[in-house]
Amino acid sequence: MTVNETENPFLDFTTFYNIIDGELSSTPDNVRHATNPITLEENPAVPVSSIHDVNRAVEAAARAAKLWAEVPWEKRVSAVREYADAIEDKAEDFARILRMETGKTTMWAQHEIGTCVRYLREFCELSLHGEVIEDTKERKIVTRYTPLGVAVGIVPWNYPVQLSCVKMIPAILTGNSYIWKTSPYTPYCSLKFAELGQRFFPSGVLQALSGDDNLGPLLTEHPNVQIVSFTGSIPTGKKVIESCSRTLKRAILELGGNDAAIVCADVDPASVAAKIAAVSFCHSGQICIAMKRVYVHEAVYDAVLAAMVEFTKTLKVGSGNDVYAGPISNKDHFERVKNLLADIDAAKLTVALGSTKPPSDLGGYFLVPTIIDNPPDDARVVVEEQFGPVLPLMKWSDEADVISRANSTNMGLGASVWSRDLDQAERIGKQLQAGNIWINTHAEIGPKAPFAGHKESGLGVAMGVDGLKAFCNVQSIYTRPADGVAQY
Ligand code: NAD
């Protein structure tokens, strides 16, 4: 079945297909269902792609990439802009199915879709020009950026569409074709995004595959894929790059984090506590760049802890329209966070607010925002990426010491410093080993700024002009006059 606007003016948000070579494609003999983490009901059937589906998608992507590479930049930009408008038109439907698969509250599901629309438009404001390195009578050197060919984006379940948009749009704008490997937990909104995209891009430029845990390796191993842009956990990222190395395909890795926030002595405790808690407990902590360890100067520790407890009490958890945070998105991760919470009990850490047990009245995979008062630096909740609604606050007194504690991790995604003294904040911030440093804010990102992880949090760059270059080959052209003297 082909998918264009004339034949199919309305997206059907109840049946879900792979998108291969401009067509809706199903796997009638092999389907799976993810679970709604709010109700624990089975979500609709989605395809389980086989190697046959992967081969068809990669062949179509390779054909499409050759033609798409010849399409002028401005036309690619127009297609992306029209796609953004169409997503905006269907924002309510997309938010509804995103909620069904991630458990996001209405507000945060709408926020993710709205962010996708904004990102698409902002990516269109970037441009990637070749560079003139030298231009003399004797010689001209020009560098240009050419598309790699077939790009694969592999995404996690926490922001399944937003995290694909930061791969898909740079790949498509720079003239590549893009295969969207959806998360097994959250394929629904992604498949519909790709289906809608068929109205704006030629067949094979944007495709999407759903499947189980076997699908990712089929794509990373495929010899006709030129680049894999992966977002997910550090252990899986290591497998991805190992697999990519066999065919020497490019890989961009956006991996886990354990962001530290350093709160200085001069802050307004109530204001800073509220800002930190609002980020940390958004989407029940399932955000790679949420702060996961908070170091508070001893002079304001008690005040910040008390203010954070009071503010966090106002953050309602549940499934209604007026709640701030929903459940943990899937059973596997629910079990993982519960295991971490059990360790808090076993280590007899002090729980300042919340609970290490799921609430009895909500059903679903719910956990409540939980604040841990001054655990030791080697507690699991401090050392591990909790990716859930539990936040440890620790005391500090010496600047060099707190910087060293913040840096004592294999992860380096983001970090923030909170102070009225911007010189102090900048001095501390520049010593933190992370790809994104925020001062008096946290988790602000956008298409125009490069996003990268230090240490094991990532490899390569997403977003910004560097993120466009990541989907390109670099080609340097050296030209001398035909009658000039050769120089070696
Ligand atoms: P995950 O690593 O388990 O899975 C991510 C994706 O990889 C999924 O689509 C999965 O199906 C696929 N996959 C699994 N095994 C694979 C393999 N061998 N080869 C190829 N693909 C494979 O991660 P998750 O649980 O979905 O997501 C949570 C993690 O993602 C957290 O660690 C979080 O910090 C991280 N994350 C990072 C960022 C970032 O920008 N750095 C953003 C969001 C989430």
Count every beta strand, where a strand is a DSSP E run of 2 or more residues: 22
Beta strand %: 15-25%
Question: Distance N terminus to C terminus?
Answer: 58 Å
What's the number of helices?
Answer: 15
| Bound ligands, each once | nicotinamide-adenine-dinucleotide
Described by strand count, sense and barrel closure, the largest sheet is:
7 strands, mixed
Radius of gyration: 24 Å
Structural class computed from helices and strand pairing: alpha/beta
Mean pLDDT: 96
The outline comes out as: globular
Please provide a written account of the structure.
The chain has 488 residues and is α/β, with parallel strands linked by helices. Helix content is 36%, strand content 21%. The chain has 15 helices and 22 strands. The strands form 6 sheets. It has a 7-stranded mixed β-sheet, sandwiched between helices. α2 packs antiparallel against α4, α3 crosses α4 (106-123) and α9 packs across α10. The protein is globular and about 75 Å long. It binds nicotinamide-adenine-dinucleotide. Nicotinamide-adenine-dinucleotide is lined by residues 154-158, 163, 181, 183-184, 213, 216-217, 220, 231-233, 236, 239-240, 254-257, 288, 385, 387, 413, 453, 458.
